[in-house]
Structures are given as structure tokens and as C-alpha cells.
Amino acid sequence: MPKEMRKGEISEPNLEEQGIFPKRFKSHNDSAGIVSDYFRKNKKFGTEAELLERMEKPAENELGTIYVHTPYCDKICSFCNLNRKQIDNDLEDYTSFLVSEFEKYGKTPYMKSKKINVIFFGGGTPTIYKEHQLERILKAINDNFTLTDDCEFTLETTLHNLNPKKIKILEKGGVNRLSVGIQTFSDRGRNILNRTFLKEETVKRLKNLKESFSGMVCTDIIYNYPDETVEEVLEDARIVKELKIDSTSFYSLMIYEGSQMSKDIRNNTLELNYELEKDFELHDAFLKSMLESGDYEVMEHTKIVRKGKDEYRYIRNTHQGKDILPIGVGAGGKIDNFEIFRLSQDKAFYAISSDENEMKMKRISGLLQYPKVYFDKLKEYVSDEMFDEIYKIFENFEKKGYLKIHETHTELTPEGIFWGNNISATILKKCLGGAKDVKSSSLFHINRKHKKNS
Predict the structure, then answer these.
(1) Residue-level pLDDT at 2
(2) Where residue 160 falls among pLDDT bands split at 50, 70, 90?
(3) Torsion of Cα atoms, 397 then 247 then 315 then 413, to 10°
(4) Cα(316)–Cα(320) distance, rounded to whole angstroms?
(5) Which region is the signal sequence (predicted)?
(6) First to last CA, the chain
(7) Do the Cβ atoms of 298 and 417 come closer than 8 Å?
């Protein structure tokens, strides 16, 4: 059974290094953010002119990624506060904006020297576009960039935004991976999370998508929504396995300021009673159910994949620090040593980093997102003395039952996967000499009770 620090207990690095954590980190952003926050002071602001000047020269690395953000939905999930808004126009202007961005960056020597092996459309809901708009967008990508033959091309989607014609357009444009925001199959859970369709129709449409789409079909599952039962999370796992979904993410519910659910909780119209033991029970039930058939394996802390199927190359490229060209409002990425975040169609934030230590720490952060951490890879970025210190922490975690130490690597247990982001954060803080945690943007991920009005 997982244990957090007792109320009032002083949070000290040595306690975390012994596997006693002040709270559970549910997202990789909670651990990776430690690195970004630590090196923030070393960055300097840049400009688009400086970025474009850099892009007048060829890239040093041939392979690259494009991330495209669509900050629009036609129905917003109750837990979501991401960079999105409910659609209020036909998106014709935004489509033209994306096309112009593809043309602007695609003609640079930097991008012409690259072969794109990953494209990821996130949101929002990227399949919200009309058929002719999708055709324009996909054509612009293929016209302006060189894609590898095995390019992993993903669109996030909902079931109700897809139709047979759109699926054909996506396939023709090179899309070979769809990530479907299911969250849960439970009728009660889908109502709480403001999802379209009840269980029966959801399963039917997902099954039809698997049969009609030639690429991979992946899902997102959320557990520990209000009053979720073990039976409900096991049913989610059963359906994912039965439909042979190629991969699924699984996150404990995170409620953010600005979401409808956060407002309902503050207004006492929704009850939230987060308990660590319940979080672990649901995580453990889902994970073990997915693994028991032998068809699935853990790829990273919050991703389970069918063996031999989904590589999820996008997240691997991210962890390895490869170039990600960000296109669209709300998109973030990096080109060479420029970090970029698109604030609006005419504004963006640019930061320039030349700190080699930051690069090393980000690579370590990436290595720690996987269930197996290989010692030779870790030693590429830390001194022998630091590795010895990290190894001692691994030994402490092994005593807690979080991982097993093998000759060449460590391997997380199911309980270790539950605490995976805390384990990552602990190692990162050790490497940084005691850096502080970053404040989570999730409002309610520590023990807290809110009562409904009677």
C-alpha cells in the first residue's frame, strides 16, 4: 500500500530518497518541470527574427517532429482547462493560418534539410475541421515538408467528430495513428466527465473505427473520477483489451483551475474525496488487468501498449530532446536551442538556452519516464560519483518494493509505476543538488474533501 508523509511531517530530500513522498505526482510535467524551473534563470528571450535567422542554415540532425495545435472543441470535457475553447466559427481563417505557417517554415533551409518522422496534431479536437479544411491542411504538410516513409502521423480525436469521409481523407493525407479521448466507458463516468455518447454507442463506434481505419487506434483512460469503483475501471480495461486497442494512456483524474469541474467543486455542486489508497487501488486494478493477458506492456509511466504495435515515437522524440516545430495557437516546441510557445496567431514566446547541463538534465528526465532505466544510458549524463548516489536511492526504492535492480538496469514494479513521477523527481532533485518541486497546476491532487449541498 502506498504511503505519503504524515500531516505535519517535514519534507526533506532524504525522506523522499527513502521512498516517502509528500504527495503523489500524477503527471510527467510535475517531475520534468523541476528541470525547467531550475534552469529558467539561465535563459534569455529571443525573437522570431533570430529564430528565422537560425533556420536559414541546415539542421544538424536530420530527423524532426512537427506538432500542430488546434485550440478548439465543439464540446468541452468537465475536467479540461487546456489551451482550447468552444468553437464559435467555421475555422476557415484558422485553417488558412495553419497553411501559411506550413509554407513559411517549410521553405527554410533548416526544415528543408530535415526528414519528418513524427507529426502530432493535438488539441482541442483536431478532427473538428470540415472535410475540405482537413484536405487543405494535410496537403500543405505534404507539399512543404519531406516525410519519411514510416512517418508516425497522429491526430487526437473524439468519436463524434469522425465520419467515414473524414477517415478516408486522413488516410489519404498520411495519418496512420488516431488517439481517441474515451476517458471511460462507464455511463456514470462519461456523464461526470461530459463525454458524448453512452457506453453502448461508444463501444460500437470505437469498434467500427478499428475496422474502418487502416492505422493504429489508441485511447485515453482516466481513473479515479468521483466515486469510481474497481468494477468500473476493470470494465474499462476489459473493453480496451477486447477491442485490441493499440495503446492506451491512463491518468488519475487531475482537476485544474478554470475547468467546469473545478467550478462545480468550489460551488459545492460536486463532491470530491481524493484518497491515496483509492487512487492506488484503481491504478493497480487497471494496470494488472491490462498486463495479465500478456498482450500488453508498460511503455512509460502512463502509457500501456500492445506488444509490437504502437511505438509512440512522438513522446520518445520529446524525451530525447529532438526538434519539434510548433505550429498553431497553443503549440510548444523547440528548434535547435530555441524554445517556442505560440501565444496567438501573431505572438509567440521565444527562449534561447545554451546551457549544456540543462540538456543533460532533460535527457535524464526522459530516461526516467520509462519502466526500465539502463545504467549505461544514465552514466552518459552523470559523473561516477553522482551515479553512485543515484544507485543508493535505487537501493532504497527496491527495499520499498518500487523497483528491482538488475545487472544492467532497474525495472519498476506496479507500485513503482504508480509512484513513477515521484521517483523521477527524486532523482532529478538529487542531480540538481536539492532543487525544489514545482507547484502543480492541478488543484486537487492531495487529500481533500468537498461536500455536496444536501
Answers:
(1) 58
(2) very high
(3) 10
(4) 6
(5) none
(6) 33
(7) yes
